[in-house]
Amino acid sequence: MSIDSKLAELGIVLPEPAAPVAAYVPVVVHGGLAHVSGQLPFIDGQLVTGRLGEDVSLEQGTAAARACGLMILAQVKAALGSLDRVERVVKLGAFVNSTGAFTDQPKVANGASELMAEVFGDIGRHARSAVGVPVLPLGAAVEVDAVLAIRGD
Known about the structure:
Blueprint: H1 3-10, E1 27-30, E2 33-39, E3 42-43, E4 46-47, H2 58-80, E5 86-97, H3 105-120, E6 127-133, E7 142-150
Parallel strand pairs: 5-6
Antiparallel strand pairs: 1-2, 2-7, 3-4, 5-7
Helix pairs in contact: 2-3
């Protein structure tokens, strides 16, 4: 089954790939890997902002991480032409805008991690970092980047 068919089966519609907000490109393909720049969470076209442990709930943070994962998929599809070229999701890095007392960054990051497993199955299981940070670009609640192994440069 193609990844597009899997997305349709899951009822997932990828967002329009977001334009970079600074001097970088969304995806760099080199040496059989696609390095995806950090993606911000857009839900219904609105950036999810705020801080976990302050004004963003764990559930909202998890949904924001999933939205970042959807944007990663959209960027990869735009760069590669097809998500069927993904051989393996290698690593995700999740950055969670959170207070010093908030310690559930891994639970927030599960929003993106579980999406990758839903979409890709076993090849969607990956290594990961989930860290708390005091601020993110544009006040975003979460940012997620990725490294994926791909077939054919």
